[in-house]
Structure formats: C-alpha cells, structure tokens
Amino acid sequence: MLIDLHAHTWPRSHDSVLNPDDLIVRAKQAGLDAVCFTEHDTMWDHKSIEELRAKHNFLVLAGVEISTDDGHILAWGIDRYVFGMHRSRELASYTERASGALVAAHPYRRQMPWFSRSEEETTMALEKAMRNPAYQYVKALETLNGRGSDKENEFSRRLQEMMGMPGTAGTDSHAISDIGKVATYFDREIHDERELIEELKAGRYYPVDMRTGKPVGVPS
Prior knowledge:
It is a single chain. By secondary structure, this protein is an alpha/beta fold. The protein has a single domain (2-215), classed as Metal-dependent hydrolases (TIM Barrel), CATH 3.20.20. The protein has 6 helices and 10 strands, in the order E-H-E-H-E-E-H-E-H-E-H-E-E-H-E-E. It has helices at 20-29, 46-56, 88-97, 119-129, 150-163, 193-202; strands at 2-4, 34-40, 59-68, 71-76, 101-104, 140-145, 167-170, 182-186, 205-209, 214-215. Strands 7-6-5-4-3-2-1-8-9-10 form a 10-stranded mixed beta sheet. Strand 9 (205-209) and strand 10 form a beta hairpin.
C-alpha cells in the first residue's frame, strides 16, 4: 500500500496552508492508501484522527515532526511533546519507552553543501552526515522528499546507500500542489499507527516517485 509519511496541516503546523480535509481528499484522488499528519512538534489527538478517518473513509495516521539539534525527525508512537526532545538522544529514549519509531526527515538539510565544487566535497559531506548522532536511533532515512530538488534527494539517497538503511518517501506537504508527488510503498497492509510502527521497524517498504511510478533507492 502507498502511504505519504510526511504532511502538514494548518493550524497545527503554522507554516502550512493545508486544511486537513483538503489534504485527505487530494490524497485519495492521487491514489494513496493513507496519509500521515506529522505536524511540527505538535501531536494530533486520537479522537480527532478517528473522526477524520470516519468522515472520509480513509486511513489517516498520526505522527509528529520533531525539531532536534541534529535535524528534523519524524516520530510515531509518542503522544505528547516533552521538553528535552530537541536532543535526539532524549527523543529516542522517550520513543523507545513508547515502543515507537523514528525516521530522519529530509537529511540533505544542513548537511549537503550548497555549492559543491567537486565530487570530493560531496563525498566528504556525506561521510560527515553519516556521523550525525541522530542516525543511530532512526529506522530509516527519508530519501525522497516531495519538496526537495533532484540534487537534494540524490544526496539523501546516496547517504541512505552508504549507511545501508531503508529509505522512505514523504511529500512534506504544506500546500495542495505538494500532495501526491511521492509516497512510501509498504509490502503489508497497515490499519493503524501500531502496525505502521511495526512495518517501519521491519524495513518492508521503499520510496516511490508518484510522478514517474518508479521506486527510488531500492537495494538490489
């Protein structure tokens, strides 16, 4: 099944202009099977998610995007923001206690050189990114971000390959035009957040570019 693992709605994400209902309608039209609401440092409550699922007869999953000192991290399984989560180690500790899962969002940010003059510079940046302390805690890297450029996503894909980790895809939607560009394909059916977490931990998924219909960065 195809799931958008990374999307933002207003007003829970202040930089989004997407109404939750509009996002769901557009996701259905794009052929997705589910969408994750991953607001910035803000969690959806279970009751609101259940109401949206029933209203649209569509699987809506709740996650969150946490801003840490080591980059932005998508998290599932935690139910509230706790001070200290801006440190990836503490976020990981809390997520582990909640039996949740973490994925590094758009890993090219703050790690890819803006003006790389040589392949050597890019390789050095990739090797430095591999030492990001947060990556010892995540289950995957978001190797296909719908708002990232081809060059940025290529950096993420190469980093994923070098680290030997699974990759995910998310639109990082903030507007209608973002929805439906990319998604993560899961081998097994998912019906709720617990099953999503189980699959994220198992690694049975890969990124898909919905614009071409092709998988991205799938291990041979």
